[in-house]
Design a protein that fits this description.
152 residues, transport, ABC_transp_permease, cell inner membrane, cell membrane
Length: 152
C-alpha cells in the first residue's frame, strides 16, 4: 500500500510477526534457519496479499485495513509466542553471525574517554546550603517545605 501512496499502520506488527515466525521455527521447533527465513518472508508476503485483497478487490480504505491488521497481526504474534513471550536466539546462528558482522561490539567512546582521564588527586567536594534561600528563617532549608519570611 505504500507503493500507491497510502499509509500502512500495520508494518510494525507484520515485521514483528515475521520475526516471531522465524524465531519460533528456528529455536523452538528446530527448523533449519534458512528454511525459517523463507517461512518468515512468505508470512510477510501472505499478509501483504491479504491486506492488498481487502483494499483492491473489496474497496476497504487502506487506513481501516492496516489498522485492523495492526491489531490482528499483533494478537497473532502474541499467540505464536505463547506464554514465554520471548525467544532467545543463538549467537552462533545466522542472526547472531549477521549481527556480529554488521554491528561489531566496540567499546563506547565515553568509556574510552573516562579511562583516558588521569585520576584526580583531591576528593570531590560537595556544597550544602545551611540556611536556605534569602528570606528564610535560620535553620530551615528550602527542602523543608514552605519557609516563612523572617519577622525580625
Amino acid at each position: 500500500m505504500l507503493l500507491i501512496g497510502e499509509i500502512d499502520l500495520s508494518v510494525g506488527s507484520v515485521s514483528g510477526l515475521a520475526a516471531v515466525v522465524f524465531a519460533v521455527l528456528s529455536v523452538n521447533r528446530g527448523v533449519p534457519e534458512w528454511l525459517a527465513v523463507i517461512a518468515a518472508v512468505l508470512t510477510g508476503a501472505a499478509i501483504g496479499t491479504v491486506q492488498g485483497f481487502f483494499y483492491t478487490r473489496l474497496g476497504v480504505p487502506a487506513f481501516v485495513v492496516t489498522l485492523a491488521g495492526l491489531l490482528s497481526w499483533y494478537g497473532l504474534m502474541l499467540y505464536v509466542l505463547g506464554s514465554s513471550s520471548s525467544v532467545n536466539l543463538d549467537e552462533s546462528g545466522l542472526v547472531g553471525q549477521l549481527t556480529n558482522y554488521y554491528l561489531p561490539i566496540q567499546p563506547s567512546r565515553t568509556a574510552w574517554r573516562r579511562s583516558a582521564r588521569p585520576p584526580t588527586s583531591s576528593p570531590p567536594t560537595t556544597t550544602t546550603a545551611a540556611a536556605g534561600p534569602p528570606g528564610c528563617r535560620a535553620g530551615r532549608s528550602a527542602r523543608s517545605g514552605y519557609a516563612r519570611a523572617s519577622s525580625r
